[in-house]
Amino acid sequence: MTKIKICGITREREIEYLNRLEPDYAGFVFYEKSKRNVNLSRAEKLLQTLSPDIQKVAVTVSPKREEIERIQSLGFDILQVHKTLSAEVLDAAKIPVWYAANIGDDETEEDFFRWRSTLSAALREKITGILCDAPDFGSGKTFDWSKKDPFSKMKQDRTLTKILAGGLDPQNVGDGIRRFHPDAVDVSSGVEGSDGKEEEKISAFIQAVKEADRRLL
Questions:
Q1: Cα four-point dihedral sign 15, 16, 17, 22
Q2: Under DSSP, is residue 63 helix (H, G, I), strand (E, B) or coil?
Q3: Distance of alpha carbon 130 from its chain centroid, rounded?
Q4: Of 115-119, 129-133, 182-186, which gets the smallest average pLDDT?
Q5: Residue partners of 92: CB distance under 8 A and separation at least 6
Q6: Terminal-to-terminal C-alpha distance of the chain
Q7: What are phi and psi for residue 181, nearest 5 degrees?
Q8: How far apart are CA 208 and CA 177, in angstroms?
Q9: Average of pLDDT values for 86-104?
Q10: How buried is 146 (Cβ within 10 angstroms: 0-12 exposed, 13-18 middle, 19+ buried)?
Q11: In the chain, how many domains are there?
Q12: What is the distance between the alpha carbons of residues 156 and 129, in angstroms, rounded to a whole number?
């Protein structure tokens, strides 16, 4: 069954929605340019009431070793890295790492696989997932689904979790699942209203994922 990540959590009431609706992952963004940015103290407070059954994902952009060490101290389960993922950060990572590739940008998932092959086995094993996102992450837009299957190179590498992201919402997530058969889907703006995440939209997204899974059985 396709797992579900609700990303960009910033409010206590959003934690309440997740605890009731029980997605698989909750994402917290540590990036000052994002409107969904949270600082460490805010994230720590939000995490205190999140259900232990929901895995906690720290979303970062070109992080440094010191930032990773501070984030890990809060008890996150997964580290998600956009843009630059350095060997230094991988060395500091004590939790699984998801790398986010911006499909259609200058850097692609193919560049990631070439770079990954240069790592030592110990560092390579820390990368457990690849998240395929739109060129502008956080934009609420999909990459061009008609051009390519971004997960094609992963069909021979079953060690990596395949996460589909970028512009997903309750209306299109079923099509994304049918096209790409990801292990997980990631949504943020697609379940938001004028004042953050909305419980009805999160519920509709989860139901759409479940319905798509049922149709594929």
A1: positive
A2: coil
A3: 9
A4: 115-119
A5: 65, 68, 69
A6: 9
A7: 50, 55
A8: 10
A9: 92
A10: exposed
A11: 1
A12: 14
**Nearest residue to 125 via CA among 148, 91, 80:** 91
CATH number of the domain residue 140 falls in? 3.20.20.70
pLDDT higher than threshold 80 for residue 147: no
The pTM score is 0.94
Which residue, among 206, 157, 160, has the nearest Cα to 186 in the 3D structure? 206
Range of the domain at 46: 3-216
Structure tokens at 156: 């021979």
Tokens of 91: 């060395």
Residue 36 tokens read as: 């969904």
Instruction: For residue 55, list its beta bridge partners.
Output: 25
pLDDT tens per residue, range 26-39: 999 999 999 999 99
181 conformational bin, left if phi > 0, alpha if psi -120 to 50, beta if neither: left
